[in-house]
């Protein structure tokens, strides 16, 4: 079946049955290319900007929270607004939201390149995150509404590969530009590539829900405030501790606003999030898979290089090279996964295997020691990478099979919100857990924070490395156990029939589960 053939709900090609003309094939190719470009540059800007922070600090004089907001503002805005952007796409047009996001991303990234002050840079980067939300949620919804069946599986497998490329090589690409031309050139390059993304929106076909209900403003406000409270509170744990009043206030406020959000969504006729998606059906299983993938991969990806350089004998270059054992499978595995699903291999089996591999890789990572070399660590890193690659190819495509057409944008936004929010929260909790486990042994929270950041200098290096390693081992065991438990729950959920969607939208029953 051609990637540009549209299927009816019975899975039969629409129209007279003849292959689509060349114009349709070209449009399908351009649609896929435009969306994939967005899924490349947005993760690149997400993972690569941290490389430029030292140069930005030296140039603009920023430090502390103001400087960190260059990264945090982008991540927070994107994570908070992806669900909103997806729902807006259902109401007002998915192409329109994608295009607005692309234009805002380019304009604000260009403004970042010329920022005269760190606070202006913070504002520009936060607006870039708003644009990124439109691109990510709108792009996923466009693919979900443009492709079905095997074509959709292939398209989202390519999305998994593209996101992997962006996340894996964003720091390398940004590092080259910053070293050669400076941090302003890095933002200029991202904006320049973004112009191609804007041009690509001209060939996209518009789609939206058949009915355009009133926008759920109270639910939107409650959701955004809830996510901000949770993410900001969690990000303060590493420096202030879990019992800090500031942490408790923000976490409590975040949970309260999310409870308000749920109450609002239950009562409104046209919610920004249809809670029927979360009632224990297959979509819930795929959403849990997205969350679990973040739990099992992000901590190792971000914090292991610091351990290897601080407690071990690795240089920055050697640590980066070793991490390719985890990132390269994310590039190679998704296309193979898409082929397996289209040939009849159970998606339920594959996602259970993926999460089990991630769990096994984290458990195996407990071989980590100050004297560990590449030989000891390549195996666990490859297990985690293969599991991540399998999951990246499966989650979005399979989740869309259980969503009514009018909810595709909402579902895409929810998946991306869950993924982005989980990444941010896991980063904060992973670091805070290492610090909390070490603080009583190394002489306080401040010293534990320096150790977690790789500062193990002095005569007590061996002792600090031992404490650092013990903390790593315990965290790895907890992560492995959580992933293993999650694999069992996911296997159960994705094996259910899609009755939730059918009950919520009886005229648009979801496609039966293929697992």
Describe the 3D structure:
- The protein is an all-alpha fold.
- 76% of the residues lie in helices and 0% in strands.
- Helix 1 packs across helix 6, helix 3 runs antiparallel to helix 8 and helix 6 packs across helix 15.
- It is globular and about 70 Å long.
- The protein starts with 21 loop residues before the first helix and ends in an 11-residue tail after the last helix.
In short:
By secondary structure, this protein is mostly helical.
Question: What descriptors fit this protein?
Answer:
515 residues, mainly alpha, 19 helices, 0% strand, disordered N terminus, disordered C terminus
Give a topology summary.
Layout: H1 22-48, H2 53-60, H3 64-92, H4 94-113, H5 118-146, H6 149-181, H7 183-200, H8 217-235, H9 237-240, H10 245-267, H11 282-310, H12 316-322, H13 324-342, H14 347-364, H15 374-400, H16 408-442, H17 445-452, H18 461-494, H19 499-504
Helix pairs in contact: 1-5, 1-6, 1-7, 3-4, 3-5, 3-8, 3-16, 4-5, 4-7, 5-16, 6-7, 6-13, 6-15, 8-10, 8-16, 11-14, 11-15, 11-16, 11-18, 13-15, 14-15, 14-18, 16-17, 16-18
What's the helix-strand series?
A: HHHHHHHHHHHHHHHHHHH
Average residue-wise pLDDT: 79
Helix content: over 70%
Backbone CA Rg: 22 Å
């Amino acid at each position: 079946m051609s990637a540009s053939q549209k299927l009816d709900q019975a899975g039969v090609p629409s129209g007279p049955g003849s292959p689509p003309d060349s114009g349709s094939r070209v449009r399908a190719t351009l649609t896929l290319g435009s969306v994939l470009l967005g899924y490349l540059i947005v993760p690149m800007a997400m993972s690569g900007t941290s490389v430029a922070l030292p140069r930005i600090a030296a140039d603009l004089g920023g430090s502390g929270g103001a400087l960190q907001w260059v990264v945090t503002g982008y991540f927070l805005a994107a994570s908070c607004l992806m669900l909103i952007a997806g729902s807006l796409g259902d109401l007002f047009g998915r192409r329109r939201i994608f295009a607005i996001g692309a234009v805002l991303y380019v304009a604000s990234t260009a403004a970042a390149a010329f920022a005269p002050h760190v606070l202006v840079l913070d504002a520009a980067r936060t607006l870039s995150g708003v644009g990124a939300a439109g691109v990510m949620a709108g792009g996923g919804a466009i693919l979900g509404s443009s492709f079905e069946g095997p074509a959709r599986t292939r398209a989202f497998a390519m999305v998994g590969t593209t996101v992997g490329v962006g996340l894996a090589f964003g720091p390398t690409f940004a590092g080259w530009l910053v070293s050669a031309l400076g941090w302003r050139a890095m933002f200029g390059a991202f904006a320049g590539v973004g112009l191609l993304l804007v041009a690509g929106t001209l060939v996209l076909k518009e789609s939206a829900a058949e009915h355009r209900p009133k926008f759920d403003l109270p639910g939107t406000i409650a959701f955004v405030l809830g996510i901000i409270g949770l993410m900001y509170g969690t990000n303060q744990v590493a420096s202030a501790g879990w019992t800090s009043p500031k942490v408790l206030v923000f976490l409590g406020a975040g949970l309260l606003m999310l409870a308000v959000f749920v109450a609002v969504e239950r009562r409104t006729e046209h919610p920004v999030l249809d809670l029927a998606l979360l009632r224990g059906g297959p979509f819930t299983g795929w959403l849990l898979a997205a969350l679990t993938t973040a739990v099992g991969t992000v901590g190792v990806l971000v914090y292991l290089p610091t351990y290897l350089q601080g407690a071990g004998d690795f240089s920055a270059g050697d640590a980066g090279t070793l991490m390719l054992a985890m990132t390269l499978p994310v590039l190679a595995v998704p296309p193979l996964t898409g082929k397996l699903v289209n040939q009849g291999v159970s998606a339920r089996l594959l996602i259970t295997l993926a999460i089990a591999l991630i769990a096994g890789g984290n458990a195996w990572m407990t071989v980590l020691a100050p004297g560990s070399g590449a030989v000891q660590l390549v195996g666990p890193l490859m297990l985690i990478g293969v599991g991540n690659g399998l999951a990246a190819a499966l989650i979005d495509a399979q989740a869309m099979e259980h969503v009514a057409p009018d909810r595709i944008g909402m579902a895409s936004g929810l998946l991306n919100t869950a993924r982005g929010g989980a990444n941010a929260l896991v980063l904060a909790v992973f670091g805070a857990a290492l610090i909390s486990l070490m603080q009583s042994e190394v002489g306080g929270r401040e010293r534990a924070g320096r150790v977690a950041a790789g500062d193990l200098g002095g005569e007590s290096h061996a002792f600090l490395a031992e404490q650092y390693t013990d903390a790593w081992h315990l965290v790895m065991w907890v992560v492995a156990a959580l992933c293993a438990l999650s694999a069992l729950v996911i296997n159960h959920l994705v094996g259910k029939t899609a009755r939730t969607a059918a009950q919520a939208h009886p005229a648009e029953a979801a496609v039966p589960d293929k697992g």
